[in-house]
Amino acid sequence: MKMKKAWILMALGATFCLVLIIGIRQYTTTNALTYADETVSKSIPDSEIKKEKKDRDHGLKRVNAEASYIGFEDIDALENDADVIVVGTPILPFEKREHEATYYEDGFIQNFYTLTDFKVEKVIKDPEQAVQNEKIKFIEPISIVTNENGQKVIYSIADYQEVQQGEKYLVFLKNNGLGNYSVINMNNGTFDLNENEENSFNALEIEGDPVHEKLKNEALEEYDLN
Q1: Torsion sign over Cα 115, 120, 124, 128
Q2: Closest C-alpha among 16, 6, 4 to residue 139
Q3: How far is CA 169 from the centre of its chain?
Q4: 226 residues of the chain, pLDDT tens digit each
Q5: Between the CA of residue 46 and those of 20, 21, 30, 106, 176, what are the distances in Å?
């Protein structure tokens, strides 16, 4: 069990390459959590990126860390970067998923992520056969963690919104080189396919993003998902 835990934390470090420090410190984030071979780093003062808001589903505060990362604004580029593209539904509600975090000795959060089990309905791209028994597990740049004050808080990168149980999504994933798969392109790497999107938590949070809408419309046409 300890070996498994250690392996997961090593995978986290290689996948996210993220240092998150709360309080008087600064945040330093990289896009290595989504891209294996290109990294952009940027240090941002805490005062500019610490945002808290009440989560409508979980009753927890959300703390967001902005990130400098390479994004994709057309479906061909997004597809080319992805190792796996699938349509499906999260198996568990967010609060019951595997939430992982590492801490500094003083209790401040260092790294975090969530492992999401996903029931696959349609495989669009999967040359590595990552989907097994119509399921895949992937990393999302968000987690429920216990902060330095002993409070449970949702931490996310670049306002990332977790995929919701009971909702159907198109998801773009990339292999981190250690056998794990991560959502790429932040919120523009998951697309809610539900007909009644006005009631969707994810859709409401990213409503009005023209890049997201453009990518989604291109994907719907490209993959015949209408």
Answers
A1: positive
A2: 16
A3: 13
A4: 544 444 444 444 444 433 333 322 322 233 334 333 232 223 333 333 333 333 345 678 999 987 777 899 999 999 999 999 999 999 999 999 999 998 888 888 888 999 999 999 999 999 999 999 999 999 999 999 988 888 899 999 999 999 999 999 999 999 998 889 999 999 999 999 986 555 444 544 565 689 999 999 999 999 999 8
A5: 10, 9, 16, 18, 28
- Which has the closest alpha carbon to 56: 205, 197, 186, 207? 205
Give how far Cα 29 sits from Cα of 44, 68, 88, Å.
Answer: 9, 7, 29
The model's pTM is 0.75
H/E run at residue 198: none
Range(s) of the domain holding residue 137: 2-222
Question: Number of folded domains in the chain?
Answer: 1
Distance of alpha carbon 156 from alpha carbon 214, whole angstroms:
24
